[in-house]
Each structure stands twice: as structure tokens, then as C-alpha cells.
Amino acid sequence: MPNPFNETDEQAKARKGRSLAIALGLVVFIILIFVVSIVNMGGAIANRPL
Amino acid sequence: MTKPAAITPASASTASALWTDYLQLLKPRVMSLVVFTALTGLVCAGKPINPIIAFVAILCIAVGAGASASLNMWFDADIDAKMRRTRGRPVPMGKVAGVEALTLGVVLSLFSVMFMGMTTNWLAAGLLAFTILFYAVIYTMWLKRWTAQNIVIGGLAGALPPAIGWAAASGSTPLNAWLLVAIIFLWTPPHFWALALYTSDDYARVGVPMMPVVKGAASTRRQILGYSLVLIPVCLAPAVTGLGGPAYLAVSALGGAVFLLLAWRVFRSRAGDAPGEREEGLYDVKAAAKDARNLFAFSILYLTLLFAALLVEKFAGIAPLPNLTGPFFSGLA
For this UniProt entry, which segments traverse the membrane (chain A) (predicted)? Predict the structure, then answer.
């Protein structure tokens, strides 16, 4: 298996864990921004003439 | 003010750092108390708030507290490495580079303040920004290594979360919000000095001028009693300002009596007179320091019970006792 970062198994596992944590944080942040935007715009946001 | 370590490059490799090491930089245990007091402020504001907005507001306060903790761990890595209580932290252990703790702190500070402002209001965001700056700059970089009043003044940072929560919910901070701030502010000195009485060896070794190190144990014990005598009436005050109900009054009065008794015992004790009173762990002490240990432990319980009583009363719909101060504390609006 290629080892581009020249790291041990333990380091690769730690890097994967860090990457997943960052990915999860970003996804949660995006979802929060979306939900907060909807809440702040109010329930009638779609009820308007196009 | 001296600051040798934070600007020295980290020698350790962080290739093996786990994501939990970065989480530890945010001091999750301290964060939980911040969340609890901020939630109490938010609920006590008594204004209807969308639960999602409320959740985001509390999240921003928690992340802001974590950010300031990370900045603290970056700056204090040199003394953390020499103290038993803190030497296992990620930066002194070499698991995370100091500059990474700094970066995490700055990024999370910016995100939490901006998100708070855009989600709730800019009063709450401004208070959050002030709290982070006060803890990371005024307390950590200046007061902590300079004056024995470090935790007295610096305690303001830990005391502000209820006001931030209150502002997030209502857009204002009436005197009742500041009363909650005052409770935590006045609670901080007896709480920390009780701990410092039996951990002063650590502080002395690293040159942090905690009260027992600078003024001695007897003066510290006297000041613990003095602050406790001021604290308890302030803890009782919400029962007459239209904030606390009968449960709060009972908790604050009974708990306050126990607090004063324990503070009196510390005053009469020899806690802090002899070095090396601490065994392993925060609560494991030799006989002379037991009174200080008891006050330290009870102070945490007392503060938790006070805020829990307010929360329970609000959620259970128990009306506060009559406001004897008119609109002065509850706000004119």
C-alpha cells in the first residue's frame, strides 16, 4: 500500500481521525448556518410572488 | 510580565496527535460549567426564543470559552509543564504544538463571535468577544503572572456567561443578569483560594503570585472568610429582585449557611501553613488541608445548586418571589 506521507500506522490512524473530526465540524457548521438562516427568515419565506 | 515558552518553537512532532487532544485544548469540563450558567441566564431572561437559536447561542458561548481556553494553554505551556495539575495538558505533553493551540483559539474565537452576532444580536456577540479577550489577554497574559489579585479580577471572564445568555435571548442585560454575574464573580475568590491553599507549592514553583504564595496562608484564609461574608447576601438577593422563587431562596439560604460554616472552619484551620499538603488528585489532601478541600468541593456544589434552582423554577413554572426592588433589577422594559 502506498505511503505518501511516510508515516507509521499509528500516525496514519491519528491523521484520519483528525481529518474526520474536521469534516464533521464543517458539515455541522454548514447545517447550522442553513437552519439558522431558515429560522431567521421565518416560515413564510417561500410564500411570495416569484 | 515574562513569557518565555509560548514563542519558542515546539520541538515535539504532532503527527500522532489525536482529535481528542485538540478537544482537550478547549477544557471541556470548564466549558460544561460555562454552558450551564449561560443557559440559566438565557432561560431567566424570560423572553421567547426559538430553540434552535437558543441552542446556537449556547454553542457559541461554549466554543468561545473553549477558544479562550486554547489560547490560555498556548500562552501558559511553560508553567503548565511544571505544575502537577496541568502537566498532562496536550501542549506541555508535546502532543500538540503551541502554535496550533494558538491558531485553534483565534479561529474558534472569530467563528463563535461572528456566528453569535449573526444568529442572535451584537450585544451578546460583543459580550462574548469581551469575555474571550478578557480571559486570554487581560487574565492569562497580564494578571495571572503579575498580581495576587489575578483570579479576583480575572474571575470576571468566568462570571460573564449568564449575561451573554441573557443578552442572546432578550437583547438586553438588566441588573438581574448582572446579579448572576456578581454571584459567580464573588464566588471565584473563595473557590480558587481554597484550592490554592493546598496547591500553593505548584504556584510558588512556577512564580505565579497566587494569594497564599504572596500574602501567606493566614491572610488568604481571612480573605476567604471576608469574600464569603459578601458572597452569601448577594446569593440571597435574587429572591427579592424578582428572579428567584421559594426553591432558590431555600437553596441559597441553606447552602449559604453551610458555605459560611466551611469558610469559618478554613479561617480557623491551619490550611496552607505547611508545604506539601496535597497528595495526588485535587481532592486528596493531608489532614491540615481538609477544611480547605471541603470548602473547594462544596463551593462547586453550591454554585451548581444555585443556578440549577433557578433553571428548575423557570422550567417548572414556579413564580419568583415578589420583587421588592420595583423595576430596578428586572429591567424597565
Answer: 20-46
**What are B168-216's pLDDT values in tens digits?**
999 999 999 999 999 999 999 999 999 999 888 888 889 999 999 999 9
Q: Is there a contact between B330 and B241 (Cβ–Cβ < 8 Å)?
A: yes
- Under a CB-based contact definition with an 8 Å cutoff, are residues B74 and B98 in contact? yes
Size of interface A-B (CB pairs under 8 A): 33
According to CATH, what is the number of the domain B19-172? 1.10.357.140
Helices (H), B5-160: 19-24, 28-44, 51-75, 77-80, 98-119, 122-133, 150-159
- Cα distance between the two ends of chain A: 55
Find, among B117, B62, B297, the residue nearest to B198 by Cα: B297
Alpha-carbon B229 to chain mean position? 20
Q: Closest-CA residue in chain A for B22?
A: A18
Which pLDDT score, from 0 to 100, does residue B197 have? 92
- 8 Å CB contact between B157 and B30: no
| DSSP conformation class of B135 | I
Q: Is A18 in Cβ contact with B15 (below 8 Å)?
A: no
Contact list, A32 vs chain B (CB under 8 Å): 56, 59, 115
- CB–CB contact A35 B52 (8 Å): yes
Identify the closest residue of chain A to B114 by CA–CA distance.
A33
Domain boundaries, chain B: 19-172, 174-323
Give every residue of chain B whose pLDDT is below 70, as ranges. Answer: 1-13, 275-284, 286-287, 330-333
Predicted-assembly ipTM surpassing the 0.90 threshold? no
Nearest CB among A10, A21, A36 relative to B53 is that of A36
